[in-house]
Design goal:
85 residues; alpha+beta; five-stranded antiparallel β-sheet; 2 helices; 20% strand; globular
């Protein structure tokens, strides 16, 4: 889990909007889409590993994955949520 103090200062590197922890319902929906194939990150790479934790941009359009409690705040690693079926 991301440290709450860190979460308070993290922002999207692209828009500088605040981020928050993704809700379980969203992660479940995302992981279902990943399992079905076709989910890509903004760098164009297919996402094949389930996302156990993520940070959602304030506008709900982008999710940044968290791996081993480390937020991956790279634009190319972001997943566009509005492209989920």
């Amino acid at each position: 889990m991301v440290d709450p103090e860190l979460l308070e200062i993290l922002v999207c590197p692209e828009t500088h909007q605040p981020v928050r922890s993704a809700e379980r319902e969203l992660l479940d929906r995302l992981n279902q889409a990943i399992g079905s194939g076709g989910v890509t990150n903004r760098g164009g790479e297919e996402v094949t590993d389930p996302i156990e934790e993520g940070l959602v941009r304030e506008d709900d359009k982008i999710l940044y994955p968290v791996r081993e409690d480390i937020p991956i705040m790279l634009i190319d690693e972001a997943i566009e949520l509005d492209k989920l079926a």
